[in-house]
Amino acid sequence: MLEEIGSIIKYHRQKSGLTQLELATLAGIGKAAVYDMEHKTKSTRMDTLIKVLKVLNIDVKFASPLMKAYEEQKREESEDIRPK
Q1: Are 27 and 36 in contact (CB under 8 A)?
Q2: Could you give the CA distance from residue 14 to residue 36 in angstroms, rounded to a whole number?
Q3: How far apart are CA 60 and CA 52, in angstroms?
Q4: Directed axis angle between helix 46-55 and helix 20-27, to 10°?
Q5: How far apart are CA 36 and CA 52, in angstroms?
Q6: What pLDDT is attached to residue 9?
Q7: Phi, psi for residue 82 in degrees, rounded to 5
Q8: Is residue 24 exposed (0-12), middle (13-18) or buried (19+ Cβ within 10 Å)?
């Protein structure tokens, strides 16, 4: 899975016409961090990954057998918080 994330980032970066340095600059991170993500040479902090995904306009979706129940619970909780 981690290799696939790196591959997805590299694909989107290249299709966007960005160099690793340009992507790093736009995301506010170092060029080495982009290289490491694309080549899975080191683990990446979640906040760094999110910065890169935002620049590349990549949306992350969580999927599990429990997601529908989780989303329903969050919806109910938000309705309980609303002023009446």
Answers
A1: no
A2: 16
A3: 12
A4: 110
A5: 12
A6: 97
A7: -60, 140
A8: buried
Q: What domains appear along the chain, each with residue ranges and CATH number?
A: 2-59 (1.10.260.40)
8 Å CB contact between 8 and 58: yes
Token pair, residue 43, equals 């683990």
- Rounded to 5 degrees, what angle do the CA atoms 6, 68, 76 make? 120
Residues 6 or more apart whose CB falls under 8 angstroms from that of 39 comprise 6
Give the pLDDT confidence of 16-39 residue by residue, as tens digits: 999 999 999 999 999 999 999 999
What is the value of pTM for the model shown?
0.79
Distance (Å, whole) CA 81 – CA 60 = 27
In the three-class reduction of DSSP (H, G, I as helix; E, B as strand; rest coil), residue 55 is classed as helix
What is the rounded average pLDDT of the residues 6-14?
Answer: 97
Structure tokens at 82: 């609303």
